[in-house]
Amino acid sequence: MVKSVTVRAPCSTANLGPGFDVFGMALDAFYDEVTVTKKPKSFGIKIVSSDDIPLDPKKNTAGLVAESMMKEQGISDGVEISIKKNVPAGYGMGSSAASAAACAIGIAELFQYTKHFEEEGMLYHAGYGEKASAGTAHYDNVAASLFGGFVVVNPYVHLYHNPNGITVRSFPVPNSLRMVVAIPKISVPKQKTKASRSVIPKNVKFSDVVQNLACATQMIAELSQRKEANGLRFGANILDVIVEPARKKLIPGFDKVKKNALDAGADACTISGAGPSVIAFLDEHPNGSDREPVNTKRIGEAMKKGFKSAKVDCDIVICKPSKGPKIIRRK
Ligand code: ADP
Q1: Do 34 and 92 belong to one domain?
Q2: SS (H, E, C) 281-298
């Protein structure tokens, strides 16, 4: 009988411009590794980690996920959740979501309840876990970490009257799509997601809503092409006139970083999730385009210079979309 399961789940970028709280993409940049081990009932739920994350299960996304899934299924065993962080926490790379997604898969596998936890149910529990980091449940990052590729989540529509059923769709992304992420070396507050939500405008111009909607739907239309999707057209629609203008003030040097990325040949550049990382998108080999090949390294250097102009150092990570999580060990 399996006593312990280890899962690797990727980091992710949320929003992708116009898809605030709705779009997410798994990135092949960093992976959290979570091992869930069955323990006697008296053990309860315990988190073990040598990284700088909360060890109280109620304050850790993975702990909340385990509690929520086990409660739903009436499982009274204890469980130890050992977390090896690789995704930097608090930088807009879906760090807490990667742990939540890995834990959800581990729990489902460990208690052989995979068939009960259909995809959308798993998403519900993983999104619930995000309460530990953001204060409210949200699903964009966890959906990307759970299903890989590009995802669209809709927590507003519950199919079959199931309040736990979050509507989600995962789309394959063009192979030639590349992301350049600039992770600034600035300290982030513990309640960063809350702080970056507080600057979002309460009222927005109708024409801005229409523009964001047009860009968001065009991105999906590109990925839904029957022939190969066009990454350049997909990237060109990563434009947000509502949230980015409000949030960029929290990121020193943002305008310069973005301008430099676009001047160096990126198709788009925006804030990754709630920031402060900035992410540029690029189709390396757009089909049907006579554009010169663009160099991702050059884009990274240009973004670094942008942050330097605000006296901020940054790490540059060049990555592809990730195919999603993997169970790497059963014992
Ligand atoms: P980001 O998505 O930008 O990485 P998060 O919204 O995930 O940011 O928030 C990171 C915060 O969430 C950290 O400050 C940390 O205290 C908290 N947190 C709770 N559980 C975890 C976890 N398993 N991994 C990482 N951060 C966690």
Answers
A1: yes
A2: EEECCCCCCCCCCCCHHH
Q: What is the pLDDT along the chain (331 residues), one digit of tens a residue?
A: 899 999 999 999 999 999 999 999 999 999 999 999 999 999 999 999 999 999 999 999 999 999 999 998 889 999 999 999 999 999 999 999 999 999 999 999 999 865 555 677 889 999 999 999 988 899 999 999 999 999 999 988 877 666 677 888 999 898 889 999 999 999 988 778 778 888 999 999 999 999 999 999 999 999 998 777 788 899 999 999 999 999 999 999 999 999 999 999 999 999 999 999 999 999 987 666 666 777 899 999 999 999 999 999 999 999 999 999 999 999 9
- Choose, from 33, 109, 120, 130, the residue flagged as catalytic: 130
**What's the 96 CA to ligand 1 centre distance in angstroms?**
4
Full residue range of the structural domain in which residue 242 is found: 177-319
Q: 155 and 216: one domain?
A: no
CA 60–ligand 1 middle distance (angstroms) = 8
Q: Closest residue (by CA) to atom 27 of ligand 1?
A: 96
**Pair (115, 234) in one structural domain:** no
Residue among 193, 222, 244, 296 flagged as catalytic:
193
Q: Helix, strand, coil shares of the chain as percentages rounded to 5?
A: 35, 25, 40
Domain match, 183 and 148 both:
no
Catalytic: 6? no
Q: Residue 251 region, left (φ>0) first, then alpha (ψ -120 to 50), else beta?
A: beta
- Atom 14 (ligand 1): residue with closest C-alpha? 190
